[in-house]
Specification:
Elements: H1 2-18, H2 21-26, E1 45-53, H3 59-85, H4 91-101, H5 106-113, E2 115-122, E3 127-135, H6 136-168, H7 179-187
Helix pairs in contact: 1-3, 1-6, 3-5, 4-6
Length: 188
């Protein structure tokens, strides 16, 4: 069942990223005096645009703000994909999808793979514009490898849970020790 969910998650993420959903969900923004690339998103990337009032001294803080926005956007995209596509799950499936959406390594992945695609310091308008982008195919590849690791973790978790249940099941419903269990213990 988890294999089907993992496959559906990747298909849903891919369709969300490369379909018209992303543009429809996030829309477009126009800022007076912004460059033409501001708040636009190429087909192959997820981008965020940020600006600050000020000159070159605001460049680094604007880049940091853009990075933070991109992290939040990617996390939000994963949450939307899960919310729209997965309902009525059993507890193990919920754990699996929660681990996908609550990835502690995701901000590091975003930081390591983002590129500041456009930067403009407009001295006349006294504004700094930054657009940071993350490759969609890179995100899908990252999520695919994460899902494979999570499937392994979940299988091991279920295996440990089953072993613990077997080890702790010394009595049947009537409270009498199972003869078969005693015989197995004696044979060791």
């Amino acid at each position: 069942m988890l294999t089907l969910i993992a496959s559906a998650m990747l298909k849903s993420l891919t369709s969300f990223l490369f379909g018209s959903y992303l543009k429809a969900h996030y829309g477009s923004i126009e800022i007076d005096g912004a460059p033409s690339w501001y708040a636009t998103e190429p087909k192959e990337a997820i981008c965020t645009s940020t600006y600050s009032n000020g000159g070159i001294e605001k460049l680094e803080i604007t880049k940091q703000n853009s990075k933070i926005k991109l992290r939040k956007k990617v996390k939000h995209i994963l949450e939307i994909v899960v919310y729209k596509n997965f309902k009525n799950l059993n507890p193990d499936e919920k754990i699996f999808l929660d681990k996908i959406t609550n990835d502690k390594q995701l901000p590091i992945f975003v930081d390591a793979n983002l590129r500041f695609q456009n930067i403009k310091v407009d001295k006349s308008k006294h504004k700094v514009f930054v657009r940071s982008c993350l490759d969609k195919n890179g995100l899908i590849k990252y999520e695919k490898s994460r899902i494979e690791e999570l499937k392994k973790e979940l299988v091991l978790y279920k295996e440990d849970k089953a072993i613990n249940e077997l080890e702790n099941k010394k009595y049947n419903k009537s409270g009498i020790v199972d003869k078969e269990f005693e015989e197995l213990e004696k044979s060791k």
